[in-house]
Design goal:
Strand 7 and strand 8 (about 500-505) form a beta hairpin. Helix 10 (about 225-245) packs across helix 16 (about 320-335). The protein contains 25 helices and ten strands. It is of the alpha+beta class and about 625 residues long.
């Protein structure tokens, strides 16, 4: 980019132009008026910033000035803008269902759940009465009598990972079969490091105060004196801290080998008894009471083995009274964000949104209610969304982008000079076997077993939690369902699943500003194409490379190639760790998967664009590709 004053003619139209006064503008004013037709708005730029010094501010500085973060969001970007738009669209559709004559089946369940979630007066009138049976079930006497049974109840109620996460996923080494998974959990702060990092002391203090204040909101007969609530909160915090102490870090959990510890329930019990000394949780009973007996659950993977074993020891040592407080806290925490009276929701927001994220205002109730409906009946909403907002033309155009980016990846794999032919052949096979899902699933979730009663919001939520849990159980010790989607069609995101070797792009992502039939290829490849390349690159990032074309965790690299690969990963790790955010250096090993995918995605998508233009006898920098004074290369970036 030439500096101001060094040229006096517009590079697009060649007309005389006072470039010095225009700062770092790329074209003259008249040419700018053409650019919006190409998906470029020059008002989004900050042309007084040198793109050499700060490309980020140059490219979107104007946009940031025009789009301050709304007080109900912690951040604001293209993803959240499109999400906010989709929330409004979903509300319109759900409201239409409520007024629809003869609404029945799943549509009626959506309408009834929505109406109940929006009935704030009924929730206020109920108070904490719906919660009392749950709180009473975890009293000190019940914990003393049957700790295992109490923990199983929290799983059925949907009270989070308390104190273990319990879910299912494909067996990493036998991806055609899905198995039960159990791992660390049970902490109320976002990550283990929050309990130990020096710069999080203020958050820890607020967290303990938040627990105590919540206990006082519950009130009699559970907590009547602030001193008792403070003591209970302190005991809960210390128990969580002791669990956090034995948790694997997020960086360590990125290692797929370290998190693969497959064993029988009997083996897990034996290891637990060895560490705890016996008398802690009975896993066979836990699984049976959770809905699937040990002889039906099959082998399980203990993703964070040491953490789980050490937690069984802590459960034995903590004492029934403290464990009762802890379980009570987790029950309330699971429901207070929306399902209880406003005073609970406000308190939850004050800590988890304002104190931890900086969000200034709570979203209006309808937006929070829509999040609830999406969590319970997400695919039912998705089916409505797809029918109204997704077209077969969008799917066909998106698939063309995917295949062109795949071709770019195939070409790139053929060029890697440090990779042996043996590894290259396997890499190309994996790339060729990428399964691509676009838009929406071939079959939708059957909600017929879910009972929704208008006017009973808390009961609806409990039944929905049990419904989801039963679906999870059905996937355990069973053939992997490769038709299943892990995102709803209305989600603005995408994913690569290593155990399925698939890339998935929900319908909502195929919309402006990520994808549009009304803009040229450079814009679509700079946005949607980069997302496609990002997800494909995940198949070869430092985690994804450890899975083969079938989704099995197999070492298909030669030893020499693996060493060469890791050398290049380390370059990106070292680079990332030079950046300082909030006074701390980035953890390059933690972020390298996304960093690799971002860089690889852009390079692959740009290569695909170059190939597309080459078919027309052009390059991205040719003047013939200009629209509004901006070349295809500039529009891409």
């Amino acid at each position: 980019m030439e500096r101001p004053g060094e040229f006096t003619k517009c590079p697009c139209c060649a007309n005389p132009w006072n470039a010095e006064a225009a700062g770092y503008a790329m074209v003259c004013g008249p040419c700018k008026t053409i650019a919006p037709k190409a998906g470029i708005d020059f008002d989004d730029f900050d042309e007084m910033v040198s793109p050499v010094d700060n490309f980020y501010d140059f490219a979107i500085g104007g946009w940031k000035k025009k789009n301050p973060t709304p007080p109900e969001y912690p951040s604001w970007n293209c993803f959240t803008i499109l999400h906010d738009l989709n929330q409004k669209r979903l509300k319109e559709m759900v409201d239409e269902l409520g007024a629809k004559e003869g609404c029945s089946g799943t549509e009626k369940k959506v309408a009834d759940y929505w109406a109940s979630a929006m009935d704030e007066s009924a929730i206020e009138a109920a108070g904490i009465l719906p919660l009392k049976p749950l709180l009473d079930a975890v009293c000190t006497e019940e914990v003393q009598k049957d700790m295992t049974g109490v923990l199983a109840k929290l799983v059925l109620w949907g009270c989070g990972a308390t104190p273990f996460s319990f879910y299912e996923s494909p067996d990493k080494k036998q991806s055609e079969w899905s198995i039960a998974q159990i791992g660390q959990g049970g902490i109320g702060l976002p990550d283990r490091d929050y309990y130990f990092d020096e710069d999080k002391e203020d958050k820890r203090k607020l967290y303990k105060e938040h627990i105590s204040a919540t206990f006082m909101l519950i009130g009699a007969p559970y907590y009547t004196e602030k001193s008792a609530a403070d003591a209970a909160a302190s005991a809960v915090y210390e128990f969580e801290k002791s669990m956090a102490q034995v948790h694997m870090t997020r960086t360590d959990r990125r290692d797929p080998l370290a998190t693969y510890n497959k064993m029988s329930v009997a083996d897990l019990q034996a290891k637990s008894d060895e560490v705890s000394g016996g008398g802690s949780i009975n896993f066979s009973k836990f699984f049976e009471l959770s809905g699937k007996a040990a002889d039906k659950i099959g082998d399980i993977n203990v993703s964070t083995l040491n953490s789980v074993l050490q937690t069984t020891k802590l459960l034995k040592e903590v004492g029934a009274e403290t464990l009762s407080h802890y379980l009570r806290w987790n029950i309330v925490r699971a429901f207070m964000g929306f399902d209880l009276p406003k005073v609970f929701a406000d308190m939850h927001f004050s800590f988890y949104e304002t104190a931890l994220k900086g969000t200034k205002e709570q979203k209006p109730r309808w937006k929070r209610a829509m999040q609830q409906v999406e969590g319970v009946l997400g695919e039912a909403l998705g089916e409505l969304y797809v029918a109204k907002y997704f077209s077969s033309e969008s799917k066909a155009r998106a698939l063309d982008v995917v295949e062109r980016v795949r071709t770019a990846l195939r070409e790139r794999l053929g060029e890697v000079d440090w990779m042996s032919d043996e590894t290259r052949e396997r890499a190309i096979l994996k790339m060729a076997k990428f399964n691509v899902k676009i838009g929406f699933p071939d079959s939708w979730i059957d909600y017929s077993a879910l009972e929704v009663a208008r006017g009973d919001h808390f009961g609806n939520q409990l039944r929905a939690n049990t419904f989801d849990h039963n679906r999870t159980l059905a996937y355990m010790n069973a053939a992997t369902d490769r038709s299943r989607w892990y995102m709803t069609p209305q989600t603005i995101n995408a994913y690569y699943h290593p155990s399925l070797n698939e890339i998935v792009f929900p319908a909502a992502l195929l919309a402006p500003p990520f994808f549009s039939a009304d803009v040229d290829a450079a814009i679509n490849y700079g946005a949607m194409g980069a997302v496609v390349g990002h997800e494909m690159t995940h198949g070869f990032d430092d985690q994804g490379r450890k899975y083969d074309h079938t989704g099995n965790m197999v070492d298909w690299w030669t030893e020499t190639d693996a060493v060469e690969y890791e050398k290049r990963v380390q370059v990106m790790v070292d680079q990332a760790e030079k950046f300082v955010v909030h006074g701390q250096n980035l953890k390059g090993k933690l972020t390298c998967g996304e960093n690799i995918a971002d860089l690889g995605g852009l390079k692959l998508s740009y290569r695909a664009l170059c190939a597309l233009l080459k078919e027309k006898g052009q390059t991205p920098t040719d003047k013939e590709t200009m629209i509004g004074g901006v070349t295809a290369q500039q529009r891409f970036f």
